[in-house]
Amino acid sequence: MACRSTSPSSSSAVEKIPSTSIRILRSVEAVRRWRRPHTLDRRTVGFVPTMGALHEGHVSLIRAAARENHHVIVSVYVNPAQFGVAEDLGSYPVTWAADSAVLARLDRELASDGAGFLAAGVSAVFTPSTADMYPAGFPGQAPDSPGSFVTLTPISSVLEGASRPTFFRGVATVCMKLFNIVQPDRVYFGQKDVQQTVVIRAMVRDFMLPTAVVVGPTVRAPDGLALSSRNVYLGARRRAVAPVLHDALRAAETAYSSGAGARDRDAILGAARSLADAVLADQMALAPAQRVRFEIDYLSLSDPETMQELAQVDPARGAILSGAIRILPVEDPQPDEDRGHSDGPLVRLIDNIIISPADTAAA
Ligand SMILES: Nc1ncnc2c1ncn2[C@@H]1O[C@H](COP(=O)(O)OP(=O)(O)OP(=O)(O)O)[C@@H](O)[C@H]1O
Ligand SMILES: CC(C)(CO)[C@@H](O)C(=O)[O-]
Ligand code: BAL
């Protein structure tokens, strides 16, 4: 898969994705001009922020926005502030040609299948530059960088935030900017990044932002792997083993929900850990040219609102099972082996399962 293509070219005043009515908006001012009449006309705007490299997870959020709003706007912007200094900003997949084809296909689908959709298509895509988004200059990526940032603690310091100390500061900062620019009635986020949804809900609540946060379910490949733009880094060998995180979380969920039902952290997370250990042992029994090595960053059982770790699950409250793994570069790559985008660097994947109070009532 080609992962780097040119960004949309600038030309006429009203630029559109070819053969569609999807407006391409490049500047803050262009979005404000597009937005203004919808307020006057009392037309609702649903907003789906993305970093591009669009897949069916993004598409499911755009469809949800189209069901509930008169207009849908998608942003495609790889936000430097949420990448740590040693992270993959330089190789993050940028696939504008494929992304515009995804949006065009979806636009046609919404136009032809009016049933169930308020929006008749995708109205606009916002593709700002970093100079637009960070007028004071390229944002600092180190924890002590000066700059104008939105910080939410303690939620931003645990789990993903412990491994990626500036990640949620970058996400909250860019989302605050995007929400201020787009002024959406509703914003759409995926459950795949569950801690991000908790951070965004906290930001909307604590800063009194006039928007509703909608969270869509995680879209998965048939083998359970959560779709993710970073999956392109995997290559075939590592892709085959990548569902291990989802399988481990499901083992934990089963420990909770089956039989007498474990409520204790060690019993629940122990089930996940055992499954992952068994998969790793099987891999390590293979030759270096065949095997895949991975490390568990964390497995967590946390409170659904604060994401603080739990010793026990209160069935009336539910919990979040989540985890992150690092899949190491392949050893002994074969001459014709597909190692993945950017020669298959270390890939860090996340996933989660929500134990909802309703599930526990049924258990
Ligand atoms: N599999 C998925 N199902 C549902 N929503 C998803 C899925 N993957 C991503 N999203 C959501 O799409 C939005 C944009 O995410 P983003 O562009 O970072 O894609 P991503 O696949 O999560 O990328 P990355 O691999 O960098 O984490 C976020 O709200 C994210 O939670
Ligand atoms: C919300 C977001 C677009 C902010 O850059 C990003 O974190 C993502 O794609 O999940
Ligand atoms: N989907 C979350 C974006 C990131 O990991 O940077």
From TrEMBL:
Pathway: Cofactor biosynthesis; (R)-pantothenate biosynthesis; (R)-pantothenate from (R)-pantoate and beta-alanine: step 1/1. Keywords: ATP-binding, Ligase, Nucleotide-binding, Pantothenate biosynthesis. InterPro entries: Pantoate_ligase, Pantoate_ligase_C, Rossmann-like_a/b/a_fold. It holds the Pfam family Pantoate_ligase. It catalyses: (R)-pantoate + beta-alanine + ATP = (R)-pantothenate + AMP + diphosphate + H(+). Gene3D superfamilies: HUPs, Pantoate-beta-alanine ligase, C-terminal domain. The keyword Protein biosynthesis does not apply. Its EC number is 6.3.2.1. One of its GO terms (molecular function) is ATP binding. One of its GO terms (biological process) is pantothenate biosynthetic process. The keyword Lipid metabolism does not apply. It comes from the Eukaryota. NCBIfam families: panC. Belongs to the pantothenate synthetase family. HAMAP family: PanC. This is Pantoate--beta-alanine ligase. It comes from Lasiosphaeria miniovina.
